[in-house]
Amino acid sequence: MPSRLRLGLVGAGPVVERYHMRAIRAVPEVLPAVVADLDENRARQFAQKQGFARYTTRLEDLFGTVDLAIVALPNGAHAPVSCELLASGVHVLCEKPMARNVPECRAMIEAAERGGTKLCIGHNRRFRTNVMLAKRLMEKGIVGEVTRIEAEEGSTSDWARSPVYFDPKQAGGGALIDVGIHSIDLIRCLAGEFRDVRYHGNGTATTVESDAELRFRLANGAEGTLVASRTRNLQQHICVTGTEGFIDIGLWSEHLRVRHNKGKAFQKLPHLDAFVSKRPPQDPSFVLQITNFVNAIQGTEKLVVDGYEGMANVDVVTRAYGDGATSTESQGVSGSAAMSSAATQNRGEQ
Amino acid sequence: MSMSSNSAGVSTSSRAEQNAAPIATAILRHAPDAGLDGILQKLRSASPSPLPVSLPPTVVIKPNLCDIVSWEAGVTTDPAWLAVLAEELRTIRSDVRILVVESDAISAYKSFRSCDETFDRLGYREIARAKGIELINLSNTESIEISLEGIPLPVLVSELFLEEFYFISIANLKVHGYEYMTGILKNSLGLLTGSDLTPMHPYLPRLISQLHRLCPPDLCIIDGRIGLEGHGPILGDPVVVNAVVFSNDALAADVAACKLMGIPPQEVPHLGETAKNLGRELPEVTLPADIQPHSFSFHTPDHRAILLKFANRRIHRSSEMFMNTWINRFLRFKSEPVKFATEAIPKLVRRLYAK
């Protein structure tokens, strides 16, 4: 293995530019090597701007020339593209959601096993400072036994969205699979697995939901509600209440509010507000995510969010939607074809 | 608030706070030949006693270790307190876990003072080993950054404070350059895990009162066997007073210390701020007949000059924050004007309507 891992980017869209590129520069073990996008113009401009040695429009050009790849394509292309890369010996960090349904997820895991490669899913929120602190405090028993969870995330998005995001077949879903899956991942990470889910959304057969509400019960008996929206500005938080106190986690900030009923600090104070400094917010989660991925490839660390974790999140979503009612299986579609299809529809938006 | 006092210097009163135990304060004369055991024996016979009747599994003791200076100089807490308190606490709960906590700090000579070195050189390590006590350097524990109401800067506190414990604060009888006195309330500054508290000094009274809300002591001990006058709280001169204050209320303990030093409590900024913050008035404390107040001397710079310096810092910080806010707004507007306008205009409208 070379001393620096050669990185390939699959998809040169705004997510990569806004979030992944800053993180890539902060991990010196990674060498930006190739950027792949079916829009040649976009790939060339991206490579020039971000310092990539090469650009390409063909997925096959990555085989043997990169050690790891970040797949940031529309949801429908995650599985086929990742499967080809994984099976060809390229480690993959695939953006969330892992795929549109569980069979696609399973195919990705199997491809990683076949290729002897690592598959990491981009649930970066697990690496946020406040989430890591919340997890540590919960492990200490600060909230006691979890009894209730409230999660809310939603905004009137300013992102340029291609039509594939609104097509149930291509996207696999709307607000829940796109926005709500972050909260699903964090709830699983903090409080345990989902047992029962009851979903309500405004999606139709031809368009995905813009607003979703999920009522759920966890394996430990705790109940909760998750609201995800692409049309409303919500509170962007997860509040975990337990028998001994609560932890309220900011999803878009480093904010954390905590109470432990028996704790010394709460004799006179109702709660403590942590991470509230006026410093500019610096979200370390993407850097820590890539660092964990690189360390896992080098065998020094365990992957925090592997394929099984990603699949469990998708499983909650598909159970909520009702066994593939809004998603389709796309096994058998080649990675290049999926990239091509996504890019064709993307071009309309650019 | 009223407070009665009997001949042994034990006084009681009630607190305005809900569900709070009545205040019990004992100001006891120390007989040098009886040692600390003798003073605790007197305390046990006091009625009502500020000593606890039951304990949670953990007790945290915060001594005053503001610098590496021996206790006989009147600056730091005598480590012998650990031994007598450990025995006393174990008679109440045999399996109690006792932690002694302090933080790293910047010493009077503006050099870094490691808490671990302080534990070593002041004899805390040996006593802790002998008595099964754990010494904790809070600066080395897992900390969280929190906001305290009225303090514009975030503060770092140990995660220990999220847990349940009985808290004993031991302070010395000392004068202070611009807070006039330092006792139980000011001792809580050592609970902050950051070593350099200089940026906090303009906000000391508010910070101290908020730290009291964060971690109110259950038992306060002000060791006035040897006090400190002159250039307090570190570079002053020792004064033999031979009195020890015990209380289950920090405000009452500090007022008692003021009485012993001849300082009007209402002139101590953090006492007034804490009383206001708790919705109380400063308690009345009467010294017992066998203890005479001393008139501690001050060698302090002009108090007005200090206040002016702090006011200047506050203005500087406010103007800096004001400038940063507007620069930040300008940069956000420059990079994403549409997003900025769609977010900022409704906020501005809401604010105007609210006014």
Residue-averaged pLDDT of chain B: 87
Q: Biggest sheet of chain A: strands, sense, closure?
A: 8 strands, mixed
- How helical, in percent, are the residues of chain A? 25-40%
Give helix and strand order of chain A, one letter per element, not per position.
Answer: EHEHEEHEHEHEHHEEEEEEEHHH
What is the top-level CATH class of the largest domain in chain B? Answer: Alpha Beta
How large a portion of the residues of chain B is in β-strands, by DSSP E? 15-25%
The whole-angstrom Rg of chain B is: 22 Å
Number of strands of chain B: 14
List segments of chain A where confidence is low: pLDDT < 50 over at least 5 consecutive residues: 323-334, 342-350
Description:
- The complex is a heterodimer of chains A (350) and B (355).
- Chain A is of the alpha/beta class and 350 residues long.
- Chain A has helices spanning 14-25, 40-50, 75-87, 102-115, 129-139, 168-171, 175-191, 285-297, 307-321, 335-347, and strands at residues 5-10, 30-36, 54-56, 68-71, 91-95, 119-122, 146-154, 194-201, 211-218, 223-229, 237-242, 245-250, 256-260, 272-274.
- Chain A is built from 10 helices and 14 strands.
- In chain A, the strands form 2 sheets. Chain A has an 8-stranded mixed sheet, covered by helices on one side. Chain A has a 6-stranded parallel sheet with strand order 3-2-1-4-5-6, with helices on both faces.
- Chain B folds into 2 domains: 5-300, Rossmann fold (3-Layer(aba) Sandwich), CATH 3.40.50; 310-353.
- Chain B is built from 10 helices and 14 strands.
- In chain B, a hairpin with a 7-residue loop joins strand 13 and strand 14 (237-247).
- By secondary structure, chain B is of the alpha/beta class.
- Classes of the chains: A alpha/beta (350), B alpha/beta (355).
- Chain A binds chain B through residues 133, 136-137, 140, 142, 158, 256, 258, 260, 262-265, 267-269, 272-278, 280, and chain B through 17, 60, 142, 144-147, 152-154, 157, 159-165, 167, 212-216, 321, 324, 328, 336, 338-339.
- Strand 14 of chain A pairs antiparallel with strand 9 of chain B, so a sheet runs across the interface.
